[in-house]
Amino acid sequence: MTADPAALTRRLTDLDSTVVSDALDGLGLPPGLGGLRPVWGAPRVVGRVRTVQLEEDPGDAPGPHLATTVIANAEAGDVIVMANDGRLDVSCWGGILSLGSVRRGVAGVIADGACRDVAEAEEHGLPVFARGVSPRTARGRLRQSSTGQQVRVGDVDVNEGDLVIADDSGVVFIPRDEADLVINAARQIQAREAAIAGDIRRGVPIDQAMHDARLAGSDTGNDDKESAR
Predict the structure, then answer these.
(1) Which candidate among 34, 100, 204, 207 keeps its CA 20 to 30 Å from the CA of 157?
(2) Entry pTM
(3) Which residues contact 110 (CB under 8 A, 6 or more apart)?
C-alpha cells in the first residue's frame, strides 16, 4: 500500500464513485452506498476519512459539542464522517460546524443522518452529503460517543484513515489497506468503459460493444482491437 494518504487521494482525482464501487464489488469488498446525497449543488469530494460516532444523549452531563474536537485537529483534505445510524429526526451537522471545517481545510462531510443550515454550508462552500435535512437541534438529543474509531455507515464498516469518494451517484469508502488494489482495479474498469463508449461513438451496435464479459474484463478482444488502432 502507498503510505502517503495525499498520494492516494491524488490517484483518485479522475475516478468516480461508480467505477470504484465496481472495483470494490469485483474484489469482494463492500461496494458503494446510495441514499447519501449532496444537500446543495453537485459537489465531488475525495479525501481521507475522520470518524465521529454519535449516540443518544442520556442527559447526564454536558460534553464536547459534536465533531468539534475532530474539526480542531483536522488536516487539509480530510472528510468528516458522522455516524448517526441514518436518523432523520434530528440534525447531526450545522452551520457553525461547516464554518469551522472550512477554516481547517476540511474537504467535505458525510452525515449518515440529517443535517441543517444548508444555506450556510453552501455559503462556506463546504460539500455536505446527508440522508436528509431537519431543523431539530442535536443539543440534548445526541452526543459524541467516540472519534477516530471504526463506525458503520449503512452496511459498510468505515475506519479512520480510509479513503472516500462522494459524488452525484453516491458514496464509496475504500479500506486504506486495500487502496492500491482498488485504485488499480478501478482504472482498468474505467479504461474498458472508455473503449466501449468509443466503439459506440464509431457506430458499433451497443449490443455488440457492451456485454457483461467485456465489462468484467474476461473478454478483451474488443479492447485489444481498440488499442491496436
Answers:
(1) 100
(2) 0.89
(3) 36, 45, 79, 80, 81, 82, 129, 130, 153, 164, 166, 171
